[in-house]
Design brief:
two-stranded antiparallel ribbon, 80 residues, 3-stranded antiparallel β-sheet, alpha+beta, TolA/TonB C-terminal domain, 2 helices, single chain, 35% strand, 24% helix
């Protein structure tokens, strides 16, 4: 898996440090993210958008079924 960090403005980093974001991620057969959404309540609209933007650029190893890549959905946690 290749990840991209969320770019959080310095002015918001202190107040959000340590927060955990539960995120639902659906990927296609290439392992690219097709959809992403926050599972838990939103904390801060600007940071939420930056977290979702970062996760949407992640690249996963595709899930497989009977040896063939398949779309899949799962959830992950991003800690700021």
């Amino acid at each position: 898996m290749t990840t991209v960090p969320a770019e959080i403005p310095r002015s918001l980093q202190v107040s959000e440090r340590g927060r955990r974001y539960q995120i639902s991620v659906c990927t296609n057969v290439e392992g690219s993210v097709d959809s992403v959404r926050l599972v838990a309540d939103q904390h801060h609209p600007e940071i939420d958008a930056r977290v979702l933007d970062a996760v949407s650029r992640w690249k996963y190893q595709p899930a497989t079924f009977n040896g063939h890549p398949v779309p899949s959905c799962s959830w992950t946690v991003m800690k700021l």
